[in-house]
Amino acid sequence: MKRIDCYLDFISPYAYLAFEQLPRALEGLGYEVTYRPVLFAGLLKQHGQLGPAEIAPKRDWTYRQVLWLAQQHGIAMQLPAAHPFNPLGLLRLAWACARQGAPSRYVCETIFHHVWRSGAGADDAARMAALSQVLAPARDPAGDEARQALRDATDAALRAGVFGVPSFVVDGRLFWGFDALPMLRAQLAGDAVLDKIWQAADRVSPGIRRRAPD
Fold first, then answer.
1. Does domain 2-201 fall into CATH 3.40.30.10?
2. Whole-prediction pTM
3. For residues 102-119, b (16+ Cβ closer than 10 Å) or e, as one string?
4. Alpha-carbon gap, residue 41 to 44, rounded angstroms
5. What residues does each domain of the chain span?
6. Which of 11, 50, 106, 209 is deepest in the core (most CB within 10 A)?
């Protein structure tokens, strides 16, 4: 059975959509998923990028597109009252709930729904306290163990070549984004066409390189 490492951050609407769609996208295939919450901002910093919500025109487009995608795929979605927000509390809560190495799908689903189905503030203190009570973490979300687990997961994502969320790593190949789910399915199904595409992309050498602004 194939094992998929799913790297996600609850701040990402695309990660939410992919999380919801994943069982349908891979229906009929044998696989196991390990959910690994990571700090998206840490990935962006490492790669010298801004997040979609930090670029004003892209921010507006992102919200419109994700609502459209949710409607098209029958996924319930409400934008939070404010975005971006600080996701650290939610990420640490997820790792504090991990009882068998990584957070369960139930834990991740509950946190995603907290963010993307209420229309309220995702990091509101009262709502966070209520969410923690529902999930009943095994460890203190503000403690060193949960903090270290999040750091370790983010570092592992960077070592795996992850640059954005959601990312799915299987068989040493990385699949990024909600729209990569069909490619992920092809990988699990052993699609020979995908192998040819992978090899063709590997043969392209870098051309012009832009310098980062001073």
1. yes
2. 0.96
3. bbeeebbebbbebbbeee
4. 5
5. 2-201
6. 11
